[in-house]
Amino acid sequence: MSSRRRIRLRLALRNLSRQKRRSALSGSAMLLAMALLVFSRAIADGGHEEWIDAGVRMGDGHVSVQAPEYRTRRSLEYRLSPDVRAAVQDALRAPAISNRVVASAPRLTVQGLASSSQAALPVAVMGVDPELERSFSRLDEKLEEGRWLKPDDRLQAYVGARLASRLKLKEGSRFVLTAQDASGEITGQMVRVAGTFRSGIPEMDEGLLQIPLATAQEWLGVPGSVTSEAILLRDSRDTRPALRDLRSALAGWSDDAAVLGWRESMPELNAALRMDDWADYVFHLVLFVIAATAIVNTILMSVMYRTREFGVLRALGLERGEVGRVVFIEGMILTAISGVVGMALGAAVVWGFFRNGLDFSALWDMELEAAGVVIDPVIIPAFHWNQILLSLISILAIGSLSSVYPAWRATRIDVAEAMKFEE
Q1: 101-111 confidence digits (pLDDT tens)
Q2: Is the pLDDT of residue 204 over 80?
Q3: Percentage of the chain lying above the pLDDT 70 cut
Q4: Would you tell me how many other CB atoms lie within 10 Å of the CB of residue 107?
Q5: Cα dist. 91→29, 65, 263 in Å?
Q6: 173 three-class SS
Q7: 134: CB partners within 8 A, 6+ apart
Q8: What angle do CA 54, 60, 65 make, to 5 degrees?
Q9: Could you tell me which of 254, 255, 247 has the C-alpha nearest to residue 94?
Q10: 184 φ, ψ to 5°?
């Protein structure tokens, strides 16, 4: 480092240490802004991850494999054949994909009619593998009466509580399912209620029931076939690489299988999360404005109160640009120290007090449902270090921009006038 650079750095540090109160007050504003930014980002990321996890478990997973036209037609005509299913399973066993996969669940879904002696209602009948579905949707944890499906069940059904209430069904009650089979014929199947569930989503509790996958395949005349293969990943951030790898692995089956991410298969959830992200951006913008105001105020006041000092420095040989750089360095030092300490403080508060979750249940008396997903009131913060690093870079950028104007003002000081200035 050259001697002139060392002089500029010493001058900047000297002024910050000389004006301890002003530096501390401004630094505190930026420190708190950064700590609040880290805290809010961790809570937001944790809330989003839980929201996505709940949505994809009840939906088609982070990634789903379907026949290309099934999403729009919802017909058994567009289903995954046993050969395609075997190719999907082979692809999921590849190391690049299997390391990201938590569970996968085959499903055979058809729109039909549930009829009892009391009423008949339209329903979505979902054939599931009881063991695989248990680890995927966790719908067995929503049990209200009776029991969850067993692997050896044949004519048992797991029914939404509101649907059971409207059809006047209870555990052990028999009722008839009617739907269009693979050949286009209307066919019926008698089943018995094994248990009822209450998911917290009215539409699901009133319009969904599950039966064993083997029973659904036999009833609808599609042995070995399913309408979708739902795949659950470790983290929503694994969705993009998993999509890329799975599409590459199934490239030879592109006419028979389409690989969709949760943003495509659950557009309502995607839209709700984007809206929530925009609200976070507005909040963070307010924090950045607070930090920028504190920096501009501190450095500009420093310039105004040091007019004579700058005049003396200019008289001793410091150039206009060097005076401006001294002021700019002051702003950057103040910003960097406050930003790093604020980031550490925010992370410490989140980890120290809320690592087991922040309970918002006191804010609402009932389950909160949004975009077809029941939101857990206990939010576990998630530290995504790329987000925290981005926040730190942003606060440093704000500090740089906020220091430009005071530095420019310092370069405009007239030496002759400054020497007359009485402090």
Answers
A1: 999 999 999 99
A2: yes
A3: 84
A4: 24
A5: 52, 11, 21
A6: coil
A7: 140, 148
A8: 150
A9: 247
A10: 90, 0
Q: Check whether residue 8 and residue 129 sit in a common domain.
A: no
At 259, which amino acid appears?
V
Name residues whose C-beta falls within 8 Å of residue 217's C-beta, 6 or more positions apart in sequence: 108, 127, 223, 224, 225
Higher model confidence: residue 340 or residue 30? 340
Residues 69 and 84 in one domain: yes
* Antiparallel, parallel or unpaired: β 186-197 and 156-160: parallel
**What's the CA gap between 289 and 283, in Å, rounded?**
10
- pLDDT for 373 equals 60
Report helix, strand or coil for 110. Answer: strand
pLDDT of residue 228: 93
Which two structure tokens, joined as six digits, stand for 85? 């299913």
For the chain, the domain total comes to 2
Q: Please give the single-letter amino acid code of residue 79.
A: R
Give the Cα separation of 390 and 175 in Å (integer). 57
The token pair that represents 311 in the structure block: 């005049």
The answer to whether residues 177 and 260 belong to one domain is: yes
Residue at a domain's end among 230, 265, 300:
265
Provide the terminal-to-terminal Cα distance of the chain, rounded to the nearest Å. Answer: 33
Beta-ladder partners of 109: 126
Instruction: Report how far residue 38's alpha carbon sits from residue 344's, in angstroms, rounded to the nearest whole number.
Output: 9
- Least trusted range by pLDDT, from 20-24, 50-54, 279-283: 20-24
pLDDT at 374 over 70: no
Q: Are residues 158 and 218 in the same domain?
A: yes
Higher pLDDT, 416 or 326: 326
In the numeric block, the tokens 């077809």 are attached to 372
Q: Mark whether 280 and 139 lie in a shared domain.
A: no
Same domain, 217 and 305: no
Most confident of 185-189, 279-283, 311-315, 354-358: 185-189
- Among candidate residues 231, 265, 299, the one where a domain is terminated: 265
What confidence category does residue 270 fall into, taking pLDDT thresholds of 50, 70 and 90? Answer: confident
Number of Cβ within 10 Å of residue 158's Cβ equals 28
User: With DSSP H G I counted as helix, E B as strand and the rest as coil, what are the percentages for the chain, rounded to 5?
Assistant: 60, 20, 20
> Residue 54 and residue 289: Cα distance in Å, rounded?
35
**Residue 241's CB: how many other CB atoms inside 10 A?**
13
Q: Band of the pLDDT at 218, cuts 50, 70, 90?
A: very high
**Residue range of the domain that includes 308:** 3-55+270-420
Tokens (6 digits) for 190: 């008698």
